[in-house]
Specification:
- Pfam families: Amidase (PF01425).
- It comes from Streptomyces lasiicapitis.
- Belongs to the amidase family.
- Residues 447-481 are annotated as: Disordered.
- The protein is α/β, with parallel strands linked by helices.
- The chain contains 15 helices and 14 strands.
- Helix 7 packs antiparallel against helix 15 (432-443), helix 9 crosses helix 11 (321-330) and helix 9 crosses helix 12 (335-356).
- It is 37% helix and 15% strand.
- The protein is globular.
- The chain has helices at residues 8-16, 22-40, 48-65, 106-113, 151-159, 175-180, 215-226, 261-276, 292-307, 309-314, 321-330, 335-356, 389-395, 398-403, 432-443; strands spanning 43-46, 75-79, 117-122, 164-169, 184-187, 207-212, 247-251, 280-284, 361-365, 378-380, 386-388, 407-414, 420-427, 478-480.
- The chain has one domain (3-291, 337-480): Amidase signature (AS) enzymes (Alpha-Beta Complex), CATH 3.90.1300.10.
């Protein structure tokens, strides 16, 4: 196995054992990034010389003083909303083309303190305001969308061009691309991971979290990101996979409405596997679902427009058309509309807290359909309703942003075209330990956990599904462009 194929945990173990050096690992990942970047466009910039210098320093530090921790010498990418002193933070936008960060973000500082090696900045949908990341291609099929807005981070990890990466999540922007590219994405509890030095989309909905190949890796990164705020995250993962006594909520409504048969079959099969591991399955009613879209957009749009107020007026032509129209729409919303959305959000949080009292986690699809073909604008569901691709991707992820609870996406198989499907595990506030425990227990039952995307950077259908739990029914969703 080549070094770039190693998961974070496996690479850390090899470095600890003296079987692999940070320099060898970083060289391998950089070579992989160079090989796939022309096909994928995951990175805004790759700073190869600086990464090799950092890997050399890490090797010397480990030889002299030992490992600081599992991230020491591990190469990673940062979504290009995250400030690193002296480096550009472009937000994948012409608006920010000349912006140079004058200080490190808190998360960049914590990762540097952990000894991680920065490879470069990964692409985002412009200012994180979208669910497709149009400049980046899906790691499993370059004719499909990468998902967004952390598409570059998810694609880099799925392709082996970064051992892990950070993304941000305002309405699903970590979980959506992670699910569409067959990797793990964690949106922690709101404000658990500090947002200082990270370009905002919507300050009261924004979250920062890891994109990794395995749940175990996500726990290791979360340890470094939270510092002393939530210690011992990774320690819980050393267990036998027994979920006896744990209650898994299975939604009766909303989360399985308007999803493809492929997605429903794979997620329900994964939920049954949790039951086989000892978990008790409990039917739950998701509250106030009719207000999800109105609250998500009613909060996000005015907050985003407020953040961009000056540059939108000074240089509107520098924004991409899809982002500009959303920012301009925010100027039409009244203060009363925003306050009503926040009031409804408070009611949703309370209702979700009551619902979560009955269970430890809720298990549901991450997205209702797999990666759409590039250029597809909408989908028609079996009930005759038509929904934009972006709205379909945000629909199942937005509730965790509105309520601020932790949510993890884990790969659970592929559809009949061989495209990845994700299961979302949603927990109590500050319930990351439980969410990760359940995700890890499921992950340990799969022979393909942590796999790289087959044929990353190539155009065409990926390898047909072979993993257990991969469904075969034909989807009833019809593409409309």
């Amino acid at each position: 196995m080549r070094p770039y194929e190693l998961t974070l945990a496996a690479a850390a173990a090899a470095i600890r054992a003296g079987e692999l050096s940070p320099v060898e690992l970083t060289d391998s990942v950089l070579e992989r990034a160079e090989a796939v970047e022309d096909g994928l466009h995951a990175f805004v910039t790759v700073r190869a010389d600086e990464a090799r210098a950092a890997a050399t320093r890490a090797a010397h530090e480990i030889a002299a003083d030992g490992l600081r921790g599992p991230l020491h010498g591990i190469p990673m990418g940062l979504k290009d909303l995250i400030d690193v002193k002296g480096q550009p933070t472009t937000a994948s936008s012409a608006v920010r083309v000349d912006h140079i960060a004058d200080a490190d973000s808190t998360v960049a500082t914590r990762l540097a303190d952990a000894g991680a090696v920065l490879l470069g900045k990964t692409h985002t949908h412009e200012f994180a305001y979208g669910l497709t990341t149009p400049q980046t291609r899906n790691a499993w099929d370059a004719e499909r969308v990468a998902g967004g807005s952390s598409g570059g981070s998810a694609v880099a990890v799925a392709a082996g061009a970064a051992t892990f990466a950070l993304g941000t999540d305002t309405g699903g922007s970590i979980r959506v691309p992670a699910a569409l590219n067959g990797v793990v994405g964690l949106k922690p509890t709101y404000d658990l991971v500090p947002r200082h030095g990270v370009t905002s989309l919507s300050w009261s909905l924004d979250h920062i979290g890891p994109v990794t190949r395995t749940v175990e890796d996500a726990a290791l990164v979360l340890d470094a990101l939270t510092g002393s705020d939530l210690p011992g995250q990774s320690h819980l993962l050393h267990h036998d996979g027994d979920l006896t006594g744990l209650r898994v909520g299975v939604p009766r409504n909303y989360y399985f409405d308007r999803v493809t048969p492929d997605v429903e079959s794979a997620v329900r099969t994964a939920i049954d596997r949790l039951r086989d591991l000892g978990a008790e399955l409990v039917d739950v009613e998701i509250p106030l679902t009719r207000y999800v879209q109105a609250v998500q957009w009613g909060v996000m749009v005015p907050e985003a427009t407020s953040y961009h107020e000056r540059t939108l007026r000074a240089t509107p032509e520098l924004y991409a058309p899809d982002v500009r129209v959303l920012l301009e729409a925010g100027e039409l919303l009244l203060a009363g509309d925003y306050l009503r959305a926040q009031r409804a959000r408070t009611l949703m949080r309370r209702a979700w807290a009551r619902m979560l009292d009955a269970v430890d986690v809720v298990a549901a699809p991450t997205v209702p359909l797999t990666a759409a073909p590039t250029g597809q604008q909408s989908v028609e569901w079996a009930d005759g309703s038509v929904e934009s691709v972006s709205d379909s991707y945000v629909r199942l992820s937005a509730p965790a942003n509105i309520t601020g609870v932790p949510a993890l996406t884990v790969p659970v198989g592929q559809d009949r075209a061989g495209l990845p499907i994700g299961m979302q595990l949603i927990g109590h506030p500050l319930g990351e330990r439980t969410v990760l425990r359940v995700g890890r227990a499921y992950e340990e039952t799969r022979a393909d956990a942590g796999r790289l995307a087959p044929g990353a950077g190539t155009v065409g259908a990926p390898t047909p599904p072979t993993a257990p739990g991969s469904p075969a029914p034909a989807p009833t969703v019809e593409a409309r462009t």
